[in-house]
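COURSE: Structural Biology Practicum
ASSIGNMENT: Worksheet 4, Part C
STUDENT ID: 0417
INSTRUCTIONS: Below are two proteins. For each, the amino acid sequence is given first, followed by its structure token string. Answer the questions at the end about the second protein only.

PROTEIN I
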Amino acid sequence: MLQTTMRVVALLATLTVATLAMADAKKVIITIEKPGPIVETSAKPPFTGKRAAVDVAILLDTSNSMDGLIRQAKGQLWTIVQQFAEAQKNGQTPILRVALFEYGNTRLPAAEGYIRQVVPLTDDLDKLSEALFALSTKGGDEYCGQVIDEALTRLDWSQARGGYKAIFIAGNEPFTQGSVDYQSSCKRAIEKGVIVNTIHCGNHEAGVDGKWRHGAQLAEGEFFNIDQDRKIVHIDCPQDEIIIKLNAELNKTYLWYGSRSLRENFARNQVAQDVNASEESNSVAVSRFATKAGSAYRNLNRCLVDTMMEDADILEKVKEEELPEVLQNLKPDKRKAYVKDLVAKRQELQKRIVRLAAERETHLAKQRKRLVGEGTLGGAVVMAIEKQLVQSGFGVTQADGRRKY
């Protein structure tokens, strides 16, 4: 049996694979050294381009009884993101932005309805992952109508036509709690073109009686019941070990730019989220690494390699002191060639990972329901996304591997 140990160490803006030890074991095991603390900084707005917009807000109940829900969200984040990575409209993958709210946590101010916008709509999926893994629970009152209203008001939802905008709200208390009427919030949502999907943590009857189904009906969304404490099944595959190695090489193709603190933060956080996924399980880690090889994981206005694929003249627009040090040490006429070489290397690595991920999916096809997590948060979100993206004019890959339009 085969065992692999991988240690990844983040040193400022560089990533070094320290060890990959091989021995006989049935399961691939990843050991990763955690990077240093991440300094919060602000980045430039995401590049918009001409792709269709997909905006999704996830509203999670973080009261005491929701530890299982948060565990499911951590374990299934990259499975959910992968659904958007496989969607296309007019031959292009959409620009995905995701926001995260928590509600029902007594650590939050009562005057604000025990609600917090954790992350605004962002295309920085590492930032989203960082915030999700930092969530913790504490008992409180869950005001569904108010958190939906906050998400509608505070987020900069895309105004472009032909996109997809949706809220996914998960919790276990009646949908009717709080001073903001859920009916008015849900009606307001669909008037703005935002679908509201409700995920009740509990049995069907309690969800119906608690008006979770009615909220979804008002905003043309889907209503689900899940067991928030159900454990996710993680399945190891023969392709995992190679994907893990290729991800280490993929990380070396990132050229973060901006102020020095921003460059260091982006590099650290990418590794930190590899760590977070790996600590959940090998399966979660491989799901993240496969996502990083697709077009949903885009670091425009953060990584020069990603940005040059959209803007060939980006090097002429960036101040020299905001370039990564490796480019600062090159003469200007050599910089573009250096980045282009990394673009080619990145694309080759991504092709290999995508090919292996497809083989992995074939291996898992007979156990897909177990993998996605039927009756879990990720299972509910994946089902809704697949249906609603098709209704919004996107082509998606179904669970059986066929393309649907």
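PROTEIN II
(use this one for the questions)
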Amino acid sequence: MATDVEVPALGESITEGTLAQWLKKPGEAVAADEPIASLETDKVSVEVPSPVAGVLTEQVVAEGDTVAVGAVIARIDANATAGAAPQSSPVQTPSSVTNPAGAGETPALRGDQHAPEPASAGAETSSPDDAITTLSPAVRRAVLEYHVDPSSIRGTGRDGRLTKDDVIAAAQAQKSSAPQAKAPAAPAGAPSAPAPQAKAPAAGERREERVKMTRLRQTVARRLKEAQNTAALLTTFNDVDMTAVIDARARYKDLFEKKHGIRLGFMGFFVKACALAAKDVPSVNGSIEGDEIVYHDYLDVSVAVSAPKGLVVPVVRNADRMSFAEIEKTIADFGKRAKEGTLGIEDMQGGTFTISNGGVFGSLLSTPIINPPQSAVLGMHRIEERPVVIKGQIVARPMMYLALSYDHRLIDGREAVTFLVRVKEAIEDPTRLLIDL
């Protein structure tokens, strides 16, 4: 008797998700607790494990379908023998990169991009290279953008799956090794077919591509717009001389890494500076709930991290009580897991204050939007040498613009400016962080 595979609980207030990718094909053997599908929720991607060991006999839903918590998405037969995929499966098998028109909601590759040939119907096993034919939406878009053959790329992701970085690296290698693009080679053993005619885009040709927004992008868009509609947003700016922090990193980076196994970055300084400033201006670390103001005696910092599917904000909990090493290790782990898509829902929940570092992408200045129900967000930007006047002399110093966006319903302008000045003072004189001044 087959065992139903149901959508697991996805976290507080999350009732549904989108089946982003099948990780197993019908007819393939699966082990107990082995992931068979990836779900995309409003916040993170969640892998669905098999409840039993056996063979995946049926995929009940297709990639791109919306599924509710508790819904059956597949069936596992514990007594079956691995073999060919059942012909009655209603879901398109992952051996095809492109979707026929109207199949699910995942956009198909278009233009002159070619998909690998389907595997033989009688094949009982698949080679490691077969894993790359199961492409996530982000990878599928990258394949289309860079015009590479996914069947020729060896994936570095989990179970040999392709990642966006794999596609970009292959495109760069292809560009450097071959001055002229060549059509993808047919898979070994595939029947010969007439060579496709290369079609170069005509001069001035205009193209369009429609890609369905991911659930994460939809949620980000909705929450940011809600913040603008609800909060009385205002941004105050300041600049900070990074000389002292840069000198401290240069002096202690080797000893720090040798002792703690992690590099000393800028985020540790800014998190500690915000924790110090929040003691003087607690409203920045507060929130509005109905007609009440909630003040927190702890600082849970949401750190904006770029992930393949969009911006995510995992939370560094009790950051005010953490050491520099603990902060750096936690943020580094978040960045690694965000890239791999393994952040859990519990990593994203909560948060009393947000720090966003647009400087890593080259941003000079911005007005960040708060992350409700939080009341403030600090925006960091790139460091560049600028002329400043010190003791009557014009000198070049490594300067960074800081921006604090805040909810004016809770935080007065005086409080916002005071908070930002406290952060500036702590960064320009890191000794303040040690003596709590």
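ANSWER KEY EXCERPT:
Q1: The first strand starts at residue 2 and ends at 6.
Q2: The radius of gyration is 26 Å.
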